[in-house]
Amino acid sequence: xxxxxxxxxxxxxxxxxxxxxATGHGRSxxxxxxxxxxxxxxxxxxxxxxxxxxxxxxNHRSRIDQYNGGLIQKHQIISVTEQGGLFVVRIKAxxxxxxxxxxxxxxxxxxxxxxxxxxxxxxxxxxxxxxxVEALDDPAQAFAVQVKKVTYTNHGEMTDVLxxxxxxxxxxxxxxxxxxxxxxxREVNIGSAWADVLWxxxxxxxxxxxxxVGIIHSAARxxxxxxxKESQEYMACFGTxxxxxxxxxxxxxxxxxxxxxxxxxxxxxxxxIAGRDFxxxxxxxxxxxxxxxxxxxxxxxxxxxxSKMRQFTHPxxxxxxxxxxxxxxxxxxxxxxxxxxxxxxxTMR
Length: 349
Hints:
The chain is 32% helix and 42% strand. It has helices at 2-15, 29-45, 113-136, 139-142, 171-184, 193-208, 210-224, 257-260, 335-339; strands spanning 17-26, 47-56, 59-68, 71-83, 86-96, 143-155, 158-169, 235-239, 248-251, 264-273, 276-286, 292-295, 300-303, 308-311, 316-320, 324-334, 341-348.
């Protein structure tokens, strides 16, 4: 039994490893080797880059945060050459593709080299993913205000302006968050409706016919490897809209409090009159669950359009790509000012 457990553990490790060949360039052999290792990881686990730029006084500051998932278990140097003053190192590497390694399991108290490498990777991943998620956690990037119709009602010297608009996700931001989640986090098993039915039938059949439960549970295990297990890792899930189910979920470790901390979104605006910009009064729009929905571990959600029930195994947030919240923004100004207006813009705050 002991050898069987060891064999199964080795098989599990190898399932998360992939052998690749990569090349790195550098001013020294060590630098070239490090670049080759980075290239090997990128081939298997991918890379996500988030950049931020700020201007402080006359100084322009920029920061690039890059995440490479994966850990090189071992490598073999195939060749070392020199080209144009740079060293070129070619390696063959076994890359562990487990992107989020927050739980490290050891069979003893000894701190081995492999265990130290896993712990260091988990620590570094935690900080890298925090910076990546933080860079995307920005309502101004996430949401866009789409003006649908503007109605002007004149009352002589005064005119009412009614703006009908909708808050929706910026397509680029939604795609960025989805790609980020796929790159930095392991996929969460959210089960399937058919397998969920089988597990429910298995529990019911236990009281009716004990001979059936094994068959039904075996069928469910064949479909999805058993019921999903609960975890406290924070996740991000993605779906079309809030009535049609969730398509995919990934562990991202960190919540996005600025973007999903509240369903109440602040909208401001500017109006340009005779070449001058004037700020409009800020309003608060409650998006409800049209754009996103927070879930806790063990929480159930029913999707009306697809008639599907999901029980989520992780705390996290559900993003709905086609979600949108309509609202109205009203203002009154003198007709003379309205005649001098060249544009009205609504923006997220």
